[in-house]
Automatic annotation (TrEMBL):
Keyword check for Glycosyltransferase: no
Record bears the keyword Nucleotide-binding: no
Name listed for the protein in its UniProt record: Fumarylpyruvate hydrolase
Assigned keywords, A-Z: Hydrolase, Metal-binding, Pyruvate
Organism of derivation: Antarctobacter heliothermus
EC numbers on record: 3.7.1.20
Transmembrane region(s): none
Uppermost EC category: hydrolase
Domain Fumarylacetoacetase-like C-terminal: from-to ranges: 27-227
Amino acid sequence: MSDTVIPVPQVHVIPTSDGGTFPVRRVYCIGRNFAAHAVEMGHDPDREPPFFFQKNPDNLDASGSFPYPPHSSDVHHEVELLVGLKSGGTDIPVDTALDHVWGYGVSLDMTRRDLQGEAKKMGRPWEIGKAFERSGPVGPLHPVSKVGHPDHGQVTLKVNGDLRQEGDLNQMIWKVPEMISYLSEYFELRAGDVIMAGTPSGVDAISRGDVMEATIDGLGTLTVKVV
């Protein structure tokens, strides 16, 4: 007989391209990791120390639909590379950081921009704008054995067929090995941790009924309908 006083919460998983599932432990998101996006958000594009915020594991959603969230009238799309770790540790050197990666995928960091903006003005955390239910649509994770470690390739997002965002993975200010190494200085990374690696410029509002198509070269297209 279990001694837990409530039912044990289910481990949240996301799909993999080989038909399996990837259990998610933590979700780290880097902010302003493309220079052009930093500019459009009103910041200096010079390389500053990285900063991260978090989503919750069950915010990641592979259903293909995104429910427009409450208490917002300005919800934005942000297409991002998703990085899934198979192992971790602390103080991981940059030159061995990629050894900890299981695979990569396409994701969206959906943002209640109006609520995020209010939080910024008041010096408060961003979670109310970033970590709401189903705020991280994801496609399947592709294993490194199939896709390698993508460090370049076009990143795009279309809404109803119109191109909104366009960039290249090689434009990331902080590369994947650097993000892993930096995070491991402040957190103990483990298998099941995922990193959302930042978005190119062109973030904009979506409306109910819109269809978003997020594509990263070599990782396919994630299609999500706003409902």
